[in-house]
C-alpha cells in the first residue's frame, strides 16, 4: 500500500516534537510539517484550506464543523489548553471588583470567536448570572489594531458588539474606553506596569484548581482538525494520526517528569509536574473523546449560545466514528 502524503501545520509544541521530527511515525503516512504562528495557521486554513491537517482554535472549529455538510472533521488531539480565570484584566477606575460588576460594563476580546473569551463569557452567562446581553462587548486587536473575525457569526438577539479597527484592546483598557479585557496573553499596558490595570482575579490559580475539582473541565483552546475528504478516502488516517500524537505526547511528558535530568531551565519543574499529574488523576494533558467529554460538551454549548456554532452539536458529530474507543493491543 502506498503511503499517504499529508501537510500538517501547528505551532511548535514540545508534545508534538517527536512526531514532527520523525522520532515517532504515523503508520502509512509521510508528512510535511509546517511550524507557523497560530494566527497565521488559523487564517490560512479557515480562508483557503491550505493544509491537510492543522491546529485550529476550538471556537473557529466549532463554527466550521457545525455548518451543513462540513468539509472538515476533528481529531481529539489537544494542541493547547489553559484555564482562563487569569485572562480578565480590568481598569481599576471602572470599579470592577467581582464578576457581577461586569453588568453594564464595556468588555473587549480580540475576536468574538476567541476560545479564551468563549469559555469565560460562557462561565459568566451560565454560572455567574452575567448574561451575554448584560455587557457591551468590544472586538479589537489585542496589542495592535487591525485583527478581524475569521468566521461568520449569528449573534444572539440583544447582544451588543462594537468592532474597533484603529485601536488595540490594550490602548482602550489603559484609556478607560473599555472597562475590562478578556485576553489570552497579558495586554501590553499590564506588562508595562500601568498601575490602573490589574487582574480581576489575583488568586486565579486557586480558582482554577477549585473549578477543575468541581467540574473536571480542563478548557481546550486549540485542537487538530483535518480535511474531511482525506478521512473519507482513507478512514485509517484518523486513528494512525491519533496514535502518533499520543506517543509523541507520552514522550514529552516522560521528559518533563524525569527528576534525574534537567531538560527545562526552571527549578523544581519535575516536582511540580508530578504534583499536577497526581492532582489530575494521572494525565495532565489528556487526548481522546471520553477523557475530555465534559470539556467538549461545555465548548459546544457555549459556542452555540454565543452564535458561533450554527447548531448545538453533539460530541460524537465532530470526530470520526469510533475514534473515542480505546484500542487494546
Report on this structure.
35% of the residues lie in helices and 18% in strands. With 329 residues, the chain is an alpha/beta fold. The chain has two domains: 4-81 and 219-249 and 291-317, Periplasmic binding protein-like II (D-Maltodextrin-Binding Protein, domain 2, 3-Layer(aba) Sandwich); 85-215, 3-Layer(aba) Sandwich (D-Maltodextrin-Binding Protein, domain 2), CATH 3.40.190. Helix 3 (58-65) packs across helix 11. The chain is globular and about 60 Å long.
In CATH, the topology of the largest domain is named: D-Maltodextrin-Binding Protein, domain 2
Percentage beta strand: 15-25%
Flag low-confidence runs. Answer: none
Q: How much helical structure, as a percent, in the residues?
A: 25-40%
Amino acid at each position: 500500500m502506498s503511503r499517504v502524503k499529508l501537510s500538517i501545520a501547528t505551532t511548535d509544541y514540545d508534545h508534538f516534537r517527536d512526531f514532527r521530527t520523525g522520532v515517532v511515525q504515523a503508520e502509512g503516512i509521510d508528512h510535511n510539517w509546517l511550524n507557523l504562528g497560530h494566527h497565521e495557521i488559523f487564517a490560512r486554513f479557515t480562508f483557503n484550506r491550505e493544509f491537510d491537517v492543522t491546529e485550529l482554535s476550538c471556537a473557529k472549529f466549532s463554527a466550521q464543523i457545525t455548518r451543513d455538510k462540513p468539509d472538515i472533521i476533528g481529531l481529539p488531539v489537544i494542541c493547547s489548553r489553559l484555564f482562563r480565570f487569569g485572562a480578565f484584566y480590568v481598569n481599576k477606575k471602572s470599579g470592577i471588583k467581582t464578576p457581577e460588576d461586569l453588568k453594564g460594563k464595556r468588555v473587549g476580546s480580540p475576536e468574538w470567536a476567541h476560545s479564551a473569551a468563549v469559555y469565560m463569557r460562557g462561565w459568566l452567562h451560565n454560572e455567574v448570572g452575567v448574561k451575554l446581553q448584560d455587557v457591551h462587548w468590544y472586538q479589537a486587536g489585542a496589542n495592535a489594531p487591525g485583527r478581524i473575525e475569521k468566521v461568520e457569526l449569528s449573534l444572539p438577539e440583544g447582544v451588543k458588539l462594537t468592532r474597533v479597527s484603529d485601536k488595540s484592546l490594550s490602548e482602550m483598557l489603559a484609556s478607560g474606553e473599555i472597562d475590562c479585557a478578556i485576553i489570552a496573553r497579558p495586554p501590553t499596558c499590564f506588562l508595562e506596569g500601568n498601575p490602573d490595570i490589574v487582574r480581576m482575579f489575583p488568586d486565579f490559580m486557586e480558582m482554577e484548581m477549585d473549578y477543575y475539582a468541581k467540574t473536571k473541565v480542563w478548557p481546550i483552546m486549540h485542537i487538530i482538525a483535518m480535511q474531511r475528504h482525506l478521512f473519507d478516502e482513507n478512514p485509517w488516517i484518523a486513528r494512525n494520526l491519533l496514535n502518533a500524537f499520543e506517543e509523541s505526547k507520552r514522550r514529552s511528558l516522560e521528559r518533563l517528569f524525569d527528576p534525574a535530568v534537567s531538560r527545562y531551565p526552571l527549578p523544581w519543574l519535575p516536582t511540580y509536574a508530578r504534583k499536577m499529574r497526581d492532582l489530575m488523576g494521572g494525565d495532565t494533558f489528556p487526548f481522546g473523546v471520553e477523557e475530555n467529554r465534559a470539556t467538549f460538551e461545555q465548548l459546544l454549548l457555549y459556542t452555540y449560545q454565543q452564535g458561533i456554532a450554527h447548531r448545538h452539536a453533539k460530541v460524537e458529530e465532530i470526530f470520526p466514528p469510533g475514534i473515542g474507543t480505546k484500542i487494546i493491543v
